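Internal tracking record. Fields below are filled automatically when a chain is submitted to the structure queue. Please do not edit lines marked as system-generated. If the sequence contains nonstandard residues, flag them in the REMARKS field before resubmitting.
Queue: standard
Priority: normal
Entity type: single polypeptide chain
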Amino acid sequence: MKKLTKNRKKGAVILRVLFGLFFIILIGRFLYLEIIGIANGKPLAAQAAQQYLQKETLFSQRGNILDTNGEVIAENVVSYSMVAVVTPGVTIDKDNPQHVVDRVKTAKVLSKYIDMKEADILKTLNKVEDNPRLYQVEFGTAGKNISSATKMALEKEKLPGIIFTKTNKRIYPNGVFASNLVGIVKNEEVKVNDSYKTIQTGQMGIEASEENELSGKDGSINYSQDNLGLILPNADKVLKKAENGNTLTLTLNKRIQTLLEERMSAAQAKYTPEEMMAVVMNPKTGEIVAMSQRPTFNAQTREGLDKSWRNLVAEEPFEPGSVMKIFTLATAIQKGVYNPNALYKSGSYSVDDIKINDWNNGEGWGTISFNEGVAISSNVAFANLLDKIGTSNFKSSLEKFGLGKSTGSGLANEASGDILYRYPIERVTTSFGQGTTVTAMQMMQGVSAIANDGKMMKPYYIKEVKDGVTGKVTTTKPTQVGTPVSKETANETLEQLRSVIEAEDGTGSMYKLDGYKLAGKTGTAQIANTDGSGYMTGPNDYIYSFMGIAPTDDPQLVMYVTVKKPIIQEGQSSTDVIKSIFNPVMQTSLQYLNIKPEKTINAKSVVMPELTDQTITQAQKALKESKASVTVVGDGTKIVQQLPQKGEGILEKQRVLLLTNGNITIPDMANWSKNDALKFSEISGVPLTFNGSGYVAKQSVKAGEKVNANTKITLEMKAAETLEKYNVKPSTTADEETTAATERTAVNEAVGTIVGQ
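SYSTEM-GENERATED OUTPUT FOLLOWS
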């Protein structure tokens, strides 16, 4: 017993010694940290400060894309994503629950606001029963892109556990609108610090090629907080402002682009070609005024994107056919070997025992002048001109016109084409546009020299860049990239190309414009087989095209239209396809430049009177003679704005909009064209979003309702032939609309005004 007591005392002594040593070490460590202030090689003060330091990310905005007049083509809008916190563990105060308490009630309420059935919402919320550790649930696409108005309405319902995260959504309010040029962005949600951000990256078109300009740089704010998360008084803040992306203003004109899209869609519906391209350009500067293609896609809904990823205008090399003769003719004039009155024998031409025929199966037109050969697009005429030019001189000239290399426009994947010039037969066929391949962008650049006194201008589509931080605006300057021919040659070439339009048997006679002198060249090119075994032989296996320059005495616009493999029925022609696009678009485009017509137009019309400050009754009486289709916008009693403006010509059934001094109300726009709908947007300031193309079939806001600049209005557009199932009858067919558009433009030319300005 004594021995046991002795051992216990001995053990107690040992424990006291060990605890004493531990206490001395602990005290020593505290003293060391207090005096030295460093632990694990790091200052303790910094570590303590870090514990109470909060960093918050300030997100930047992607830059907008605008048309030449500042109207939105692409912009960011705020939307929200919704999630539901389902784990009860996050709730500390039962009187202030932070999770979904009543799932049945929550599902019932949410179903009123999002596109998801109540049963499906409840099923999603009940996932927590199978997985008690589940923190939150999402609602798929139904829980994304929620508007600010819907978010505010849901917050008023006071549903515990329903939370929102702010996201930026890229919208394209015009739908199908130069989509392959403008491009789209890819959205990717990533976590930045403790916040989520939608990263937007350009995938194609300008959105991709100008990524560095459009994307912004995030900022941050650092500040000190206490252990309860409250910012400390007098705490130092370090702020790094977010830098928003730059705003790009394009050279595209929204009105002209919209009309071009309408005409392209109508032609696509009627003739179902495999591909189409159309470009309108100012040859004096190289500005792209409008650009479209088919197939294309709706940038807002992305419908059709799987079939239309490329920008055909820049990326699609093709054999241009007889439009290439513009360069052959210009080269012959430049070399001094072209005599328009000299004669040659048409019909056929032989190269190394290979016979080249004129397009009328080699029959030709007997012995005719070269001027006649140009007008009727004789292949043999241009083969003879090549003999006079010399093959080496001709190739050098084509290179001066920019063929065989990219224009360097900045668009991704721009092709260079290929001047096929190895054998004698290839050199001759190149003179009339077979074998050699080009892009539409190259053709526009080359023809700019003919329309601009010999000075060749590089095509461009960005008018100016506005810095997202400083607001400084940088304007793009036109770039001359060569002088392939003299001023005298360019003017003489234009004069010869007028015969294509004005000669009685000219191949371009159907493209005449009322009131304007037009020069141009038609083209019909065979399409090579993909296996290299010659050319396709089907009745519709051609690329039809037309290059038009107007007005010839001082060219302001060049327009190029190509149509690949249209289905042409009996009684139709390739000219019908291209004319339905070229004529209304070119004529309307000239109006925007206020180019007065060169002759008086005989058209039954009246001049739009001054209607502002008049009552509705007075205005309607003043318009009675015109038989115009008058639409009153608003619930006021006095007219404050009008479209068309005073002095412009109007025809029967032309739509006239009168804005009153009262609240703005939306009219019934059933069967309206997109152009008429845009007139409403212009006069009222109310933005519109278009889904589809053609005529208005449905509108998201009922006629008569009050609207303003913040109202979201979506118009469902349908082709004329599909409107019947929507109980809407179009006022005109596509062809009638084309005729009406041409007549309207003719009238306005007669009075020397600009429609819509």
